[in-house]
Amino acid sequence: MKKTAVILFNLGGPDNLKAVKPFLFNLFNDPAIIALPNPFRWILAQIISRKRVKEATKIYQYLGGKTPLLKQTQAQSIALEKELNTEKSNIYKTFTVMRYWHPRAETVFKEVCAYEPDEVVLLPLYPQYSTTTSASSFKEWQALSRDKFPTRVICCYPESEGFVATIAKEIDKALQNKNSKEKTRILFTAHGLPQKVIDAGDPYQQQINKTVAAIKKNMTQMQGVESVTCYQSRVGPLEWIKPYTDDEIKKAGKEGVSLVVVPIAFVSEHSETLVELDIEYKELAESWGVPSYQRIKTVQDDPGFIQGLKKAVQSPGMLCKGCDQNNKCCFKNTLAQSKFFLP
Question: Where do the domains of the chain lie, and which CATH numbers do they carry?
């Protein structure tokens, strides 16, 4: 039987408080994040990680001293492997790779080599493609693998039925509990990017809009409910893609509108959801007089989401499901643009 190794990519995060600084350095030393040649990028990454370590450490103290991202990603990996092997026609083994902390690609690649698969499938846990997330992980993996195994890349799935249906179901539940006289607005919130990244050709924002449209089509409680797509987690002096989530929260407070906040670019809980959305933005909403603030959970290992990933892995035609109308691969398109990936 055919042996397939499925590589699940995610961002990663510190597994203890001492790991916060090196995690930050790894993040900002990525040329997909800071597009400067070395040694300038290395120097700047050192400066930024030192500057941000104190604030970031406080965030991870809220989370019990480490990120929950790895544990949840491993749960998704286990669930997907189980589903993939139910039919017994082929053999699948899943592997988890974190971009900026352990388990790193170099270690996992050795495990994959020991497994000796007939095929490798690269599967990011980022539904929407970006040069700053999925592409960075793919490029790191390819530098190690050098085509050692036949490889398929599932670069994006912003409209995956399992993904969007799972989110739509949770929003419907939240809206069913709302008073019909209470004016409610849905904030579809995603991690932001500098505007210059989008202007350079990154398809992330376009795919975020695809996800939102697909979720709305799957909802049954959308009638009469407003929605806004917005972006969170901006840092630094650059202009980021708008509107900003915190600005939309303040606007809702001024207008006396209740909020249902929906993270649509995250499939696991971590600092941007558990701290930024659940603590910081909730406090902001209260201070600006938002009548009600409710946050929808991420999909995690929901069976519907896992089934969607299974379909993507087992369907060769689903390569680049979220790409442009000509079905050109986002990864291949942006990889050719060297400004995204300086050495």
Answer: 3-158+303-340 (3.40.50.1400), 161-295 (3.40.50.1400)
CA angle 333, 339, 342 (to 5 degrees): 115
- Residues 214 and 159: beta-carbon distance below 8 Å: yes
Q: How far apart are CA 174 and CA 161, in angstroms?
A: 20
- Smallest CA-to-CA distance from 213 within 259, 177, 251, 167 is with 167
Phi, psi of 297 (to 5 degrees): -70, 160
Distance CA(173)–CA(229), nearest Å, equals: 20
pLDDT at 323 over 70: no
Euclidean distance between CA atoms 175 and 275, whole angstroms = 23
The predicted-structure confidence for 226-265, as pLDDT tens digits, reads as follows 999 999 999 888 899 999 999 999 999 999 999 999 999 9
> Which single residue is written with the structure tokens 């589903």?
83
